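Each lists chain and fold; for instance:
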Amino acid sequence: MPGIKRLHPLLWIVFLTAPFILWGKLLILPTFDDWTTLSSPNYDPQWQQYFLPYGSSWRPFDAAIGYVYNAIGSQWFPVLSHVLIFLGHAANALLVYRLCRLLGFSRMAQAVATVFFWLSPCTLATVFACDSLNQVFSQMWGLMAIHVYLSMNSRWRHPLWLLCVLIATLSKENGLAWAVVPPILAFGFRRISLKTCLRHLGLGAALAVTYAAVRLSLPLTEVYYEEYHTLFSLTKKLKAVGILLGYTFLPGDYIYLLYAPMRNPLLFLLTLLPTLPFMLMLFFDRPRQLVHRHFLTLLLCALIAVSPNLLITMSMMNAYAWLAMAALLVAFCTHHCQRKRTLLGFFLLYLAATAFTYTHHWYCTWRTSLPARYMAQEAIARSGRRLEHVYVVTVDEEYRKFSSFITLPTEAFGWGRAVWGQTGFEWPKDFGGIHVDAHTPPSVIDSVAAEAFAAGYDGVWVVRHDSVSVVWPDSISVTQRDSVGIVR
């Protein structure tokens, strides 16, 4: 990296905002499935099953973090995860900068691409999450694979490139895409011949086949994911493409457009319109650049990087998978823009608008994570004693959440798991649960609770919006108790 004096002034935005992003991130509490992912504290003695393929994934590094919490204490959750995710995102921004230099882009192009990546609203679901270690580090090792491939000429080039790809893949499965991106990128920028490209693509394919063979030969823990049973819904695919393109290149504050309780089309337009001049000038100032060999190469590499997510499942967090390559597209267009002063002015306007979106999304994420704490404290206080086996009846909310930025209180409670954060993961030992409609009558909930007690649960928590009530056997009607054989 060049000396501080040679840095483009735009890069100071990264240094100046980094402490605030880390501070804001550390304030966000775990919610929803943050409590059940592999990278959350894990006290299960059957540790082998988590380091082997687990459900639809094989992520031993996530499993390792879960047992690191076991060793250092659950009080560090999610602080350690937040710090690691922040450091991984910072490393990715640095790698974007380094790749811009390797590809010969100008100082301004390097700076614009790096800041674009660092503050893009497309990063928010990943940067603000507690469970996105796999996403961040899969991309980091993938970018390292490209960097090694482009910068090294020694005999260690191929082994290190493939090692980086393997680590990226074991971080998150879409990391396997980096097995083919570096040769294609190098060929597109005329760094290698077609013959060399094909030979190296063969090496990447061999790694992919070997990985698949090893994974399929290992024992698998079956885990049911309902969303994976509607993978090829046309509606979901169109929504996935919209998420990908919208948050990357049209970064308005979509909360004001798509979340019904806060819908405000005027505010959405006020955050979207200032970003348009930069994007329009970036891509259409010289339309011929859109068919340039380098542009098409970067676009192809970006699509390859995100293709596993488009084929399987796409969320705001998954959109992070292609953002580094999209940033290189931004660098290319900036490098070839002839009216750089104007473009820089539009980019500053873009940053002003996205700063509002960034801050608003953080605020919503932080505020809607707070019920995780006070609802857990309420459940503990109303229980009055340690409960080993708890059944949670969740009364569904009227509104839906918005990605991970607006989590409903019932989901912030995490099916009761948020209590672990207040008890040091000591109790409850296990949970059961059911979701019921918002209009479910109390008699039906009593019936469900009676069946839970008959099955051996110590207590039943009923979750309505941001409140938790406790049901005990003696509070259930005699008819309900008798129907399931509870001893009075």
